[in-house]
TrEMBL record:
Domain of life: Bacteria
Name the UniProt record assigns to this protein: SusC/RagA family TonB-linked outer membrane protein
Amino acid sequence: MATSGTSLPATLGTSSPLINGGISRTQGWDTEVTWRHSIGDFKYSVRATLSDYKQTIVEFPNKSSLVSDFYAGKDLGDIWGLTWEGWFQSPEEATERNAIINQKWVHNSTFGEGDAKYADLNGDGVINNGTNTVGDTGDFKVIGNSTPRYQYGIRLGAEYKSIDFSMFIQGVGKRDVSYQNGANSKQFLGPAQGPFHSNVYAEHLDYYRPDDTTSPFGPNTDAYFARPYSQNGGKNNRNYRYSTDHFLQNGAYARLKTIQLGFTIPKNILEKYKIDRFRIFVTGENLITISDMLFYDPEGIRGTFSGAASYPLSKTISTGINISF
């Protein structure tokens, strides 16, 4: 593995140099099935592909066994996070629980109504990541894996006299997506970015509102997002700083990537015009997508709308003509 060297103390003032160290193992498989057949003037074909892989660290010079680094037994793509136990439903509930379980490691402030409750998995009365080492991760655990599993594609084709048809479907059978870490984090702060944010969806309105709210949208105590703040200022770190199982979404999808229908004018009509082939076609792209994901296109989840690194996917219908002389 060409990777970072052994983790060094921050007091050194620089990062570890790259080294050839450690051993990883990638295991997987792929299969392809193709069928072609003709029935008189009708011809058709089907091609299906399916593949899967998993990469695991076998050895790595991580003497401290930090889980934030590579370590033996780690599956690449593992998502570590906290367990979400809901939103505080009242100031009294927040006060009572704050006296029992200290969540200030997540954010050094008081958690109140509409903020997140995190599970104290190890029962020590403090929400944290322990020593962040194998065997002592505090209240963190592996909540998912971002590796795209069971990637597949299906290609269909058919011809009947002058008419031709083709279709391609692709997708991923299993994948977990966490929005709080990495390039996507700024997009899921809920209404804290306000209605003046460049990209606001109807789903952003699904934020915590108490029973006595004056909001025109009414109360919403079983919301997807936490309560809003007039300014972020780090306050949303209470609820969005670390990955939680609540915000883990299913990244599996199926998409009709392309579909095309064409018609070729018979040669006996084209001969007098000295044209060898004249074909008219219509093509559709990305017309149907089956996905449970909110906000993002499942193929572009690494992009960010605010940074213009990802553009909302367009459904496209186009026509064209192929002429050969």
